[in-house]
Amino acid sequence: MAEKIRLTAPQAAFSRRLGHEFADPSLLRTALTHRSHSSPHNERLEFLGDSILNCVVAHLLFERFPQLPEGDLSRLRANLVKKDTLHELALGLNLGEQLRLGEGELKSGGHTRPSILADALEALFGAVYLDAGFDRAKVVVGNLFTAKLDAIAPDQPIKDPKTRLQEYLQARRQPLPVYTLAATDGQAHLQQFRVLCEVASAALQTEGQGSSRRAAEQEAASRALEKLKA
Amino acid sequence: MAEKIRLTAPQAAFSRRLGHEFADPSLLRTALTHRSHSSPHNERLEFLGDSILNCVVAHLLFERFPQLPEGDLSRLRANLVKKDTLHELALGLNLGEQLRLGEGELKSGGHTRPSILADALEALFGAVYLDAGFDRAKVVVGNLFTAKLDAIAPDQPIKDPKTRLQEYLQARRQPLPVYTLAATDGQAHLQQFRVLCEVASAALQTEGQGSSRRAAEQEAASRALEKLKA
């Protein structure tokens, strides 16, 4: 920290591609430094960045899919933050050519190794967070993931759980689920509905609750899907 | 969201114990609502809050233990965010008496069930985040976890990896590790040291790098510990 660090021109260009200008350029440099090169290297930043990434993607999904139950949000997130996706995004940023690797890693092609690239990208998220705070990291991560998030929207999650359950069963040539209203509680303006969803072919019965019968059915269907896919 | 929500006096008191006054009290109410009670319930907030908690604790550990490698930080975090710890913190807040549970859960003692309490506490972290942003959630989580974090400091992680490796082997009556300098690279003011750590009893050899011989030894010891404990 004592010496004042100046970024190289390619590092500065990379920083612009990432979408963040670092107040403390040493953070960028550390995030790009693999442990085979020198210390400080990027592993601690990766630990931090991984949790920032998970948190930002959790919030982005939470906002985008206000009706989706927790289990679906978890699955979507797992798909977005996996190594393959990070590797692909790192390639889009030409991250490999900025990596600082030790001799051995360099010779064995470490700058194209998916895990090294994915880890460095996570470390960069940690570096942005330390440099400028969570909201800034959210913007950087959000911009990088916009296309991925948009790509989710049209298919699976925009379909509601009842539709997905129906399609799941039809694809397996199994009979459709049967929904029955089990109970209605509460006064007129605060009614709560309890609905049962029965999937006979799987000997499965789930329950859903909601402020409308439809909402209760959707929840019951969502839980049935979770169990069928478990 | 249409109706204006007013907290009950006990809810307002609970909110003060948690350390956050909600601009939108409906978030607090949702976080305290179990799925057995009504919708909206706290499962989506729990999904969000879990990631906030992980992220905040990651940063707190990152700051407190600037020398600790990533593997140690992960282990410490796993210990802090586990259900038992959350349950204990929830008890300290008297969270159970604020939970909104359905009839069945109420009768079967749901308000004392550790998983229900732990989940609701995570949901509360999500609610604070949505209500007032990440930095506010960090303060709330940080205050709750201060004692837990302080309790870590005196023992394990304050000891450096070389000391811990030595103690680990002594406890098992095995010979001490042998460190050898493998290489020194770079110019005088940017020297890099590579050190090997050999644990003969486990037929194990690890390597560490650093800007001093001692730093390289610590890293090699840390990796040896990781492998011995794997």
UniProtKB/TrEMBL annotation, chains A, B:
User: Where are the catalytic residues?
Assistant: 50, 122
Q: Alphabetically list the UniProt keywords.
A: Cytoplasm, Endonuclease, Hydrolase, Magnesium, Metal-binding, mRNA processing, Nuclease, RNA-binding, rRNA processing, rRNA-binding, tRNA processing
Under Enzyme Commission nomenclature, its number is 3.1.26.3
Does this entry carry the keyword RNA-binding?
A: yes
Q: Name the principal localization, coarsely classed.
A: cytoplasm
Which SMART domains did the record assign?
Answer: DSRM, RIBOc
Q: Which positions, given as ranges, span the membrane?
A: none
> CDD domains, alphabetically?
DSRM_RNAse_III_family, RIBOc
Give the main EC class.
hydrolase
As for what it does, the entry says: Digests double-stranded RNA. Involved in the processing of primary rRNA transcript to yield the immediate precursors to the large and small rRNAs (23S and 16S). Processes some mRNAs, and tRNAs when they are encoded in the rRNA operon. Processes pre-crRNA and tracrRNA of type II CRISPR loci if present in the organism.
Q: Which NCBIfam families match?
A: RNaseIII
* Subunit structure and binding partners: Homodimer.
Name of the protein in its database record: Ribonuclease 3
